[in-house]
Write a structure and sequence with these properties.
By secondary structure, the chain is an alpha/beta fold. It is 31% helix and 17% strand. A hairpin with a 2-residue loop joins strand 9 and strand 10. It binds iron/sulfur cluster.
């Protein structure tokens, strides 16, 4: 593996992606009559996220279904337009480039080529009526129309060979239904790599595969990530997959809850010593991370129900479920901190990480057992 422990790059130009205070709010799907109302309810899918992605970075975003991880991933690679904040590729605002606003230094077409996606269902992303070769030639023809047919096919065959689809000429002439799920996922990976991208979003890219194939595919993704100097953003609902990828790549895990990143940092710190009570819930739910925690019959939350993202709880969004919640959590929103999005930095958005916060003097919420809870500091 390459040296990923180099100091953080502060210059906007040196980062591949930089998100600043990004929010994505959608109008909630509703019936026809309700849709005529001017004050249609807004789903706060992503709220106030700032994060940097340098070259050759690996970020695994994890959280329960509906936490906003896929929306955030799509926003990082410029597929989803934010409703607030900025998304920059090498210092160029993506959406200004698309809209032709201001001095556009990097054309939108170049940005689109540099940011690619692998979907959860590779079979669904491939045209069932087209041979693999046709599906793979299409993006190259679109983005690099001057490339000769010979060069195009040489590149496709080389990449098919690289992902273990040998002989590549034979695989290139198959239809998607003639490929296994793992082979379809490899074709999707080749399609993403054809553009020599800077960032690939892998959205639950291994969750449909069986366990043995999952590990093999994750290893292949990591090999290619390093070989092609590509940054990867992995989306996963399972902490064990996120840990496998982030640990092997010396990357980061970002844990999301109700549209916010609530804890982020190196996987050993986030998983072995979680600071946020919600990170502890995810760890509890992942038996192979710490079997001793499974001795707790009940999950370490007060309520199983996830609040509605249309109307998230005030203050700390986790306070309705948090077993450590106090009155201060209802009104005071905890912040991740200014350095939270930087590689190598671990931060948690919880008042318990601040030994001077008024949290420690406020009363436990109804339903929370009043116990002498130790303060959690970085020295603990
Ligand atoms: S801020 Fe309060 S409610 Fe939120 S996670 Fe920390 S202790 Fe729990």
């Amino acid at each position: 593996m390459s040296d990923r422990s180099s100091p953080r790059q502060n210059d906007d130009e040196e980062l591949v992606m930089s998100l600043d205070d990004v929010s994505v709010h959608f109008e909630k799907e509703q019936g026809f009559i309700d849709s005529l109302r001017k004050d249609a309810p807004q789903v706060q899918a992503v709220d106030g996220v700032s994060i940097d992605i340098p070259e050759n970075d690996v970020l695994a975003l994890v959280g329960e279904s509906g936490c906003g991880k896929t929306t955030l991933g799509k926003t990082i690679i410029g597929v989803q337009r934010p409703t607030h904040g900025s998304v920059k590729y090498r210092g160029q605002d993506i959406w200004d480039a698309k809209d032709g606003k201001g001095d556009v230094e990097i054309p939108y077409g170049d940005i689109r080529k540099a940011l690619q996606i692998i979907h959860q269902d590779p079979g669904g992303a491939l045209n069932p009526n087209q041979k693999v070769l046709t599906s793979l030639e299409a993006p190259l023809k679109r983005w690099d129309p001057d490339m000769s047919t010979e060069d195009r096919r040489a590149r496709i065959f080389a990449l098919l060979d690289r992902v273990g689809m040998e002989p590549p000429q034979e695989y290139a002439h198959r239809f998607p239904h003639q490929l296994s799920g793992g082979e379809q996922q490899r074709v999707a990976l080749v399609r993403a790599l054809l553009m020599n991208p800077d960032v690939i979003l892998a959205d639950e890219a291994v969750s449909a595969l069986d366990v043995s194939l999952r590990v093999e595919t994750m290893d292949l993704l990591l090999e290619l990530q390093e070989q092609f100097n590509t940054s990867f953003v992995f989306i996963s609902h399972t902490l064990s997959n996120a840990r496998y990828l982030a640990e092997k790549a010396d990357g980061r895990i970002g844990i999301m809850y109700l549209g916010e990143i609530i804890e982020i940092g190196p996987p050993d710190e986030v998983l072995n010593d979680p600071k946020h009570p919600y990170s502890k819930v995810l760890r509890w739910a992942t038996a192979d991370l710490d079997p001793s925690e499974q001795k707790m019959v009940d999950p370490p939350v007060r309520s199983i129900d996830i609040p509605d993202p249309v109307n998230p709880p005030s203050g700390c969004r986790f306070h309705t479920r948090c077993p450590e919640a106090r009155e201060a959590c209802k009104t005071d929103k905890p912040e991740l901190g200014a350095e939270a999005g930087e590689p190598g930095t671990r931060c948690a958005a919880c008042h318990r990480t601040d030994p001077d916060h008024e949290y420690w003097d406020s009363a436990p919420l109804d339903g929370v057992e009043s116990t002498e809870t130790p303060k959690v500091t970085d020295d603990d």
